[in-house]
Amino acid sequence: GAGFDENDREYGVMLDASGTHAYETYPNWRVDAETGTALFPVAGVRDEARKETVYEMAFPWTQLRRTPGPGMVLGLNVIANENEGSERICWIGITPGIGDGKRPGVYRDFYLVE
């Protein structure tokens, strides 16, 4: 992946008619071997009346291949894509570096504290 290195991870989550699906896109394409979907706890709910989709995800540290501790710094970004099945219509994120091109060096830093 462009701009990624050995300590980077990228995941995708989507909700469709068959349920909520999670997958890893970097460093390897992976889905859960048993279910073909979630690598971590994930849920999505679509509210048609409000035209709103809400996702909840829990990333275990083991999935991220990290051991948390005070002072640890994580570069983190999350985006939401509007997609009607064939292509992205628009996106919004907490920082640049995904929707406008894969550039993890511009993600926000999050610091773990005790």
Rg of Cα set: 15 Å
Counted beta strands: 8
- Reading the helices and strands in chain order gives EEEEHEEEE
**Which residues form runs of ≥5 with pLDDT under 50?**
none
Helix content: under 10%
Which tags fit this structure?
114 residues; 1 helix; mainly beta; two-stranded antiparallel ribbon
Summarize the structure in words.
This protein is mainly beta and 114 residues long. It contains 1 helix and 8 strands, in the order ββββαββββ. The strands form 4 sheets. It has a two-stranded antiparallel ribbon with strand order 1-2. Strands 3-4 form a two-stranded antiparallel ribbon. It is globular, with a radius of gyration of 15 Å.
What does this entry show, briefly?
With 114 residues, the chain is mainly beta. The protein has one helix at 61-64, and strands at 10-16, 19-26, 42-47, 52-57, 73-76, 79-83, 88-93, 108-111.
What topology emerges from the helices and strands here?
Elements: E1 10-16, E2 19-26, E3 42-47, E4 52-57, H1 61-64, E5 73-76, E6 79-83, E7 88-93, E8 108-111
Antiparallel strand pairs: 1-2, 3-4, 5-8, 6-7
